[in-house]
From TrEMBL:
InterPro entries assigned to the protein according to its UniProt record, in alphabetical order: KFase/CYL (IPR007325), KFase_sf (IPR037175)
Record GO terms (molecular function): arylformamidase activity
A single BP term in Gene Ontology: L-tryptophan catabolic process to kynurenine
Pfam families, alphabetized: Cyclase
Biological classification of the source: Archaea, Methanobacteriati, Methanobacteriota, Stenosarchaea group, Halobacteria
Protein name: Cyclase family protein
Matches recorded under SUPFAM superfamilies: Putative cyclase
Domain of life, per lineage: Archaea
Species this protein is from: Halarchaeum salinum
């Protein structure tokens, strides 16, 4: 598909499509990987105190809530697209494939064959696509103790599946779990494979069950200089 045809298709989808929010609400007590900063929302000005305006101070990490990983998150050295502020914009908006892997159990991984099976049914992935894995893990999301299991025993992507996606020149890989690597795997093979090949990662998605096999995905991070990642507002547009 030419760039012009791709743009025309995207504009038609945007103008006549249904918007699906794939982003968790940020609020105090949301699940956070133990090594990452907690989210805080502190009132600074309020009408009740007699102030003319209302505003809050936010305290959060680059990987709080629904967020994107840049190569800097795991790769010690990189090129011009290494940090979150330098990711090309055309990598952040485009066609997304949604793959249902809700049968993958806790602490299990998705093999490459599952991607091949999906392609045989729905069509081949194309260079520059985004691929979203729906584990259904967002059902464990919650605040405080209600979300404690979310950061335990989550499933993930196998090293061979990650390599399959980099070979296919995928732009972004997303999941509705705390991380793309399975819980407890401190070798982080999927992170190293994807980020090392400039495939950006989106984690802590939600509502992936509302998506058809293909949709238009928008994942825009904050433009943080030397950022290893950023919270995002992830939105899909469905024809």
């Amino acid at each position: 598909m030419s760039d012009a045809n791709g743009l025309s298709a995207a504009l038609r989808t945007l103008s006549g499509g249904e918007f699906v929010d794939l982003t968790h609400t940020l609020e105090e007590g949301v699940p956070t990987v133990p090594t990452h900063a907690r989210y805080g929302h502190t009132l600074y000005e309020s009408y009740e105190k007699g102030d003319a305006a209302c505003h809050y101070r936010l305290t959060l990490g680059e990987h709080t809530g629904t967020h994107m990983d840049a190569p800097l998150h795991f790769i010690a050295e990189g090129d011009a697209h290494y940090d979150i502020s330098s990711i090309p914009l055309d990598r952040l908006v485009g066609r997304a494939a949604s793959i249902d892997v809700t049968d993958i159990g806790p602490n299990e991984t998705v093999p490459a064959d599952r991607i091949r099976e999906w392609e045989s049914e729905h069509g081949a992935l194309e260079a520059g696509d985004r691929v979203l894995f729906r584990f259904g893990w967002d059902r464990h999301w919650g605040t405080g103790g209600d979300g404690s299991y979310y950061i335990e025993e989550w499933p993930g992507l196998s090293a061979e599946a990650a390599a399959y996606l980099t070979d296919a020149d995928i732009a972004v890989v997303g999941c509705d779990t705390a991380a793309i690597d399975v819980s407890g795997d401190e070798g982080f093979p999927a992170h190293y494979e994807l980020l090392g090949n400039e495939v950006y990662i989106v984690e802590n998605l939600t509502n992936l069950g509302a998506l058809p096999p293909f949709s238009l995905l928008v994942t825009l991070p904050l433009k943080i200089g030397d950022g290893s990642g950023s919270p995002i507002r992830a939105v899909a547009v469905v024809e």
